């Protein structure tokens, strides 16, 4: 895993600019650096040595040096692909997976993407054709950003690298802010920086020296539940494919460790991998509600791992927020990113690679919210008009009253009530707090095409598809990549393997959620590796005690100062932000997620558009 960057076009001062772009990515690859510079193309590479430590440096070229590649990620089936390419006459100078991508693209073109098993973003410059080909992996595990400034394409693994290009002028994208307030993460193809785009998951990009840019989707994470599939047969398929994927993800020339939260996903990966070191974090003096370290420690004892546990204080957490926002590139209203920052920091002291359980919930149906359609059916017999009347009456009930939210959500269509695992500010709420609400539209409008594609599926499967397409890359994988790379740590996700997904996408609805159990089939598969109490443990997520901390005077005062500061006054009606904060402190409402979402944005804004000294 590494950092890549480049410029296509005749950029002025290109060597100095490329050097600055590479330096901005040094945390992604502190083990070495190199570059490729011609009149038309400049490619930069920062290396984190994992595979082929001796000869795996990039940029790397093919036999006649007509094509040059920079690559970020890991290809787990590269040895099989290399043998196949050798049979077709390709010569290899290294034992690296990067050289396999280069020769594979040379032999097959874009079709070669379908043969890759791994996580990747890469770029190939063809000096004969004067074209760049770049691609991002199926689920968006590895990032890729780009912009066109004048007549030059600039790309990088992180936005902060692109910001070093003098031809790009930094400007905030207010449409991204408006949607962020609802989704909790940056959901648009255009990032929070105007003119800088993310290459979407499962897409490739082509760019010619004449300025023609095109992006194309080559993979869609659609669900196709099978009919007449036997549970026991599917269970064996799930067991086999997960075991194979975990084994594949252990390919490395350095030691591999594993995150271990105590939940079924990371526990299953840790147990199946046999990794000797495991890592977890918790919070000091916060009680069992915010602490899974006991569960993780018990399982580590059962597995016999060298277990490392880090406890985070409130002061440490608070002080890390600006650093976290710097490494994220864009604001993320998910406080667990800060905890993940510390978890990666702890693991990086011992290993360079860790396995983690991300993706299991999205592909096996693991979120508790996927049970909601079943719960709402209790009022499904009522006519829609009657349900809407009940919802109107419920609006007058105290917000904390049990059952109020149930009545309101039962009156709404799935498209109205579900935009992903987070729905922070509804359209009316965000328009009320924003000084300049634009034309971003309803979140449901943004997701309309995705819902149309998922329309034949049961409601919970539609929810799962929305999360696969948006929540997974926008929140889960964004923080996983950026927080691990902040500490030069490679994070691998065995559940997000093409082979695993091919099995999981065919699982029928009734084998994903059963009664009050989520990811039912995966939990059964976990019985081969874990004690029953672990395999059946209810999902807790990554609980963070911010709702309590925000009520304490020191943090309350700090957030209040941010909410009444210059940046807040530029974008928000500050009196409404302060009202949210006071209501939360006084126990009238649990506004913690709304407060954190706005706070995260304002801290990020200070880092990238204000005073960022010390970051």
Features:
615 residues, alpha+beta, Glutamine Phosphoribosylpyrophosphate, subunit 1, domain 1, 6-stranded antiparallel sheet, 27 helices, 15% strand, globular
Task: Describe how the helices and strands are arranged.
Blueprint: E1 2-8, H1 14-23, E2 32-37, E3 41-47, E4 60-61, E5 67-75, H2 78-87, H3 97-108, E6 118-126, E7 131-136, E8 145-149, E9 152-156, H4 159-162, H5 174-183, E10 197-198, E11 203-208, E12 213-217, H6 231-248, E13 256-259, H7 264-273, E14 277-283, H8 293-303, E15 306-312, H9 314-328, H10 336-348, E16 353-355, H11 360-364, H12 372-376, H13 384-394, H14 404-410, H15 414-417, H16 427-433, H17 443-446, H18 448-454, H19 459-485, E17 490-492, H20 498-504, H21 520-526, H22 532-535, H23 546-549, H24 553-563, H25 566-571, H26 574-585, H27 592-609
Parallel strand pairs: 13-14, 13-16, 14-15, 16-17
Antiparallel strand pairs: 1-3, 1-9, 2-3, 4-5, 5-6, 6-7, 7-11, 8-9, 8-10, 11-12
Helix pairs in contact: 2-3, 6-20, 6-21, 9-10, 9-27, 10-19, 13-14, 24-26, 26-27
What report would you give on this structure?
42% of the residues lie in helices and 15% in strands. The chain is of the alpha+beta class and 615 residues long. The chain folds into three domains: 2-217, Aminohydrolase, N-terminal nucleophile (Ntn) domain (Glutamine Phosphoribosylpyrophosphate, subunit 1, domain 1); 231-366 and 470-535, 3-Layer(aba) Sandwich (Rossmann fold), CATH 3.40.50; 550-615, no CATH class. The strands form three sheets. A six-stranded antiparallel beta sheet has the order 2-3-1-9-8-10. Strands 4-5-6-7-11-12 form a six-stranded antiparallel beta sheet, covered by helices on one side. Helix 6 (231-248) packs antiparallel against helix 20 and helix 13 (384-394) packs antiparallel against helix 14. The longest helix has 27 residues, at 459-485. The two termini are 23 Å apart. The model has no long low-confidence stretch (mean pLDDT 91).
């Amino acid at each position: 895993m590494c950092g890549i960057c480049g410029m296509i076009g005749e950029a002025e001062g290109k060597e100095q600019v490329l050097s600055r772009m590479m330096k901005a990515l040094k945390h992604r690859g502190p083990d070495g650096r190199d570059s490729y510079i011609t009149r038309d193309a400049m490619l930069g590479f920062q290396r984190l040595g994992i595979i082929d430590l001796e000869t795996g440096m990039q940029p790397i070229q093919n036999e006649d040096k007509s094509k040059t590649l920079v690559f970020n990620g890991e290809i787990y089936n590269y040895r099989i692909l290399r043998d196949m390419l050798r049979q077709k006459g390709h010569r290899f100078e290294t034992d690296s997976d990067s050289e396999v991508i280069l020769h594979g693209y040379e032999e097959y073109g874009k079709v070669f993407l379908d043969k890759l098993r791994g996580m990747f973003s890469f770029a190939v410059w063809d000096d004969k054709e004067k074209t760049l080909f770049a691609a991002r992996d199926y689920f968006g595990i590895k990032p890729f950003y780009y912009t066109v400034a004048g007549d030059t394409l600039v790309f990088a693994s992180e936005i902060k690298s692109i910001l070093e290009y003098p031809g790009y002028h930094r400007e905030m994208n207010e449409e991204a802010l408006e949607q962020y307030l609802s989704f909790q993460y940056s959901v648009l193809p255009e990032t929070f920086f105007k003119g800088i785009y993310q290459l979407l998951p499962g897409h490739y990009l082509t760019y010619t020296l004449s300025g023609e840019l095109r992006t194309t989707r080559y993979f869609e994470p659609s669900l196709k539940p099978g009919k007449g599939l036997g549970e026991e047969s599917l269970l064996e398929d799930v067991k086999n494919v997960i075991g194979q994927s975990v084994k594949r993800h252990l390919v490395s020339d350095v030691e591999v460790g594993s995150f271990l939260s105590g939940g079924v996903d990371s526990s299953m990966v840790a147990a199946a991998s046999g990794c000797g070191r495991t890592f977890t974090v918790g919070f000091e003096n916060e009680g069992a509600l915010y602490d899974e370290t006991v569960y993780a420690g018990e399982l580590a004892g059962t597995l016999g791992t060298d277990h490392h546990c880090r406890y985070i204080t409130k002061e440490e957490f608070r002080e890390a927020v600006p650093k976290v926002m710097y490494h994220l590139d864009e604001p993320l209203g998910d406080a667990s990113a800060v905890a993940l920052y510390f978890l990666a920091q702890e693991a990086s002291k011992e290993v360079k690679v860790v396995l983690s359980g991300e993706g299991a919930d999205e592909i096996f149906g693991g979120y508790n919210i996927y049970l909601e359609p079943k719960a709402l059916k209790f009022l499904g017999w009522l006519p829609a008009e009657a349900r809407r009347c009940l919802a109107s009456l419920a609006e007058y009930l105290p917000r904390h009253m049990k059952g109020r939210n149930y009545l309101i959500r039962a009156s709404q269509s799935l498209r109205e009530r579900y935009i992903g695992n987070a729905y922070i500010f509804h359209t009316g709420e965000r328009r009320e707090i924003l000084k300049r609400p634009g034309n971003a539209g309803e979140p449901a409008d943004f997701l309309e095409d995705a819902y149309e594609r998922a329309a034949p599926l049961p409601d919970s499967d539609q929810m799962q598809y929305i999360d696969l397409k948006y929540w997974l890359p926008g929140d889960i994988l964004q923080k996983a990549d950026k927080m691990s790379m902040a500490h030069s740590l490679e994070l691998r996700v065995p559940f997000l393997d093409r082979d695993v997904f091919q099995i999981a996408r065919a699982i029928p609805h009734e084998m994903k959620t059963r009664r009050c159990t989520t990811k039912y089939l995966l939990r059964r598969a976990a019985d081969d590796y874990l004690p029953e109490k672990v395999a059946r443990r209810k999902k807790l997520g990554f609980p963070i005690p911010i709702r309590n901390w925000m009520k304490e005077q020191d943090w309350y005062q700090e957030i209040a100062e941010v909410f009444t500061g210059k940046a807040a006054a530029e974008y928000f009606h500050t009196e409404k932000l302060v009202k949210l904060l006071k209501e939360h402190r006084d126990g009238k409402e649990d506004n913690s997620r709304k407060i954190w979402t706005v706070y995260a944005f304002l801290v990020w804004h200070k880092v990238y558009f204000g005073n960022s000294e010390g970051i």
